[in-house]
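In the previous chapter we treated chains in isolation. Here, by contrast, the input contains two separate entities that must be folded as one system, with a combined length of 231 residues.
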Amino acid sequence: MFEIVSDPIDATRVAAAVSRPHAGAVVTFHGTTRDHNDGRRVTRLEYEAYPSMAVAEMRKIGVAACERWPIAAMAIVHRIGVVPVGEASVVIAVSAAHRAPAFEACHFAIDRLKQVVPIWKKEHFEGGEVWIGAQTGEAFPSGSVAPARE
Amino acid sequence: MRVRVLFFALLREKAKVDATDWELPADATVAALWRDVVATYPALEPFSASVSFAVNEEYRDRDCRLHDGDEVALIPPVSGG
């Protein structure tokens, strides 16, 4: 399950999507709106996506994770629009026979999502708003224009 | 040839456009498209180093050659999650 949604994420549904009889571990990650960032008091986040490509890139993360770890399934659901403080913008669920690969694959998935999936957050704070990541330096840490392929 | 250009996030706000068709010479590259876009929307010039590009939903670098009907996304640094 790799989806972009506009409503609050049903985390139970995301976890259920990866449930398998042979998987003894299900790890879930919720990324939620934090009330502070860089010394600013954050009032809400607002997300925008290139939806078709975002889903494709999320699915590629799932494929990459399956190649690297013995996991059973992965699901990623990202919300767009306004995400209030405390609510989840993204939920990732990973199942595996055993917990170590499930934890590692889930960690990889959120790290990778933040590098390559075409979704952007606009932070609304007391006193203004700013697009996160909109620096004028290099786009990717490696310095290359496109992200490295796993 | 004609391509579809999509603007996102800060680029969309600065250019005040989210999508538009763009006429280019045959065999134009992504780099040529970007130069053209900046000439039309000078407010985007400061983002020249940090913008990435996708052609038909795949990341491509600036020397990628475009074809008629391609969909090109102008992708500022991403910040999902």
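Helices of chain A lie at 11-18, 51-68, 99-116. The longest strand of chain A covers residues 40-49. Compare these points with the single-chain example from earlier in the chapter.
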